[in-house]
Structures are given as structure tokens and as C-alpha cells.
Amino acid sequence: MHLVRQLMTGERPAEGLPTFAQHSVLSYIERNPGCRATEISEAFGVHRSTVSRQLRGCVDAGWVQAEPGPIRSGHPLSLTGAGRDVLGDADRRRRDEVGERVRDWSDADIADLARMLHRFRTSTADHDTDQSIGADPRA
């Protein structure tokens, strides 16, 4: 839990860039255009109110737009041009930051990190057998 808390509450991004949670929402919408808030909450295994808060910030920033649609099933979501731009900028900054942090690492160390991250990403804890919550590969 400490790792999750640290990732979620880490340093605030530079002005005009999305938070970690907003970045996650923007990335999901980019990969799943037309998705609805309920789909995002199911994919990440979080309460819909959590997603709504993040979406409100993204809509207010002009990064996400809600398309017309029946309110009962939620509005289809899409990135605006500004949303695509801010997501691309945030991705570039994160890649640059990682590159800077591992700049002095050996190729073997970088390969070890990549292997361990892959292991972390693809492993499933023994107690986490409920694949219906937060196990969406689109997330």
C-alpha cells in the first residue's frame, strides 16, 4: 500500500500537467474513445465518485469532453485537442525523467529494472483472485 500511496500522492506535476490520477484517466480515454465514467471506474476498480472527481478536473481543464448521450448510461467521453496535447507532453516529460534517472545505469541494470517491472505488471497476488474489479487490461 505504501507504494500505491506514494505513486498516487507523489509530487504535484508542473503547472498545466495532469496529476497521476488524471493522467491515468486521460490515457484510458485515449485508448478507449467513447468510454463512459462507469467503464473507467470498473477498469480501475475504484468508486465512480473517484472517477467523477478526476473527470471534473479534466473537463474543467479542457482536456476531456462529454459527448451527447443518454444520461442513464453516462456520456461518451473523448479527449479534446488540448487533452491529446497535454497527455503527449506529460508522456514525453515522464520518459525524459526516467531517461535522466537511469542515465548512469549500466545496460544490465536497466535490463534488470525492465524485467522486474514486467514481472510486477504481469504478476497476480495469490489473494487477488477476483478478476472482475480493477483487472481490466484496457486500464
Structural account:
This protein is mainly alpha-helical and 139 residues long. The chain has one domain (13-122): Orthogonal Bundle (Arc Repressor Mutant, subunit A), CATH 1.10.10.10. It is 56% helix and 4% strand. It contains six helices and two strands; from the N terminus they run ααααββαα. It has helices at 2-9, 20-31, 37-44, 48-60, 81-101, 107-122, and strands at residues 64-66, 77-79. A two-stranded antiparallel ribbon has the order 1-2.
Write the layout of secondary structure elements.
Layout lengths: L1 H8 L10 H12 L5 H8 L3 H13 L3 E3 L10 E3 L1 H21 L5 H16 L17
Antiparallel strand pairs: 1-2
Helix pairs in contact: 2-4, 2-5, 3-4
Offer a concise description of the structure.
The protein has helices at 2-9, 20-31, 37-44, 48-60, 81-101, 107-122, and strands at 64-66, 77-79. By secondary structure, the protein is mainly alpha-helical.
* CATH architecture identity: Orthogonal Bundle
CATH topology (level 3) name: Arc Repressor Mutant, subunit A
Multimeric status of the protein: single chain
Helix content: 55-70%
Structural category is mainly alpha
Mean pLDDT: 83
Radius of gyration using CA atoms only: 17 Å
**Strand order in the sheet with the most strands:** 1-2
The biggest sheet amounts to: 2 strands, antiparallel
Q: Give me the strand/helix succession.
A: HHHHEEHH
Shape: globular
Which range does the strand content fall in? under 5%
CATH class: Mainly Alpha
Regions with pLDDT < 50 over 5+ consecutive residues? 129-133
Number of domains: 1
CATH superfamily: Winged helix-like DNA-binding domain superfamily/Winged helix DNA-binding domain
Helix count from the secondary structure assignment: 6
Number of β-strand runs: 2
Compute the separation of the termini in Å. Answer: 19 Å
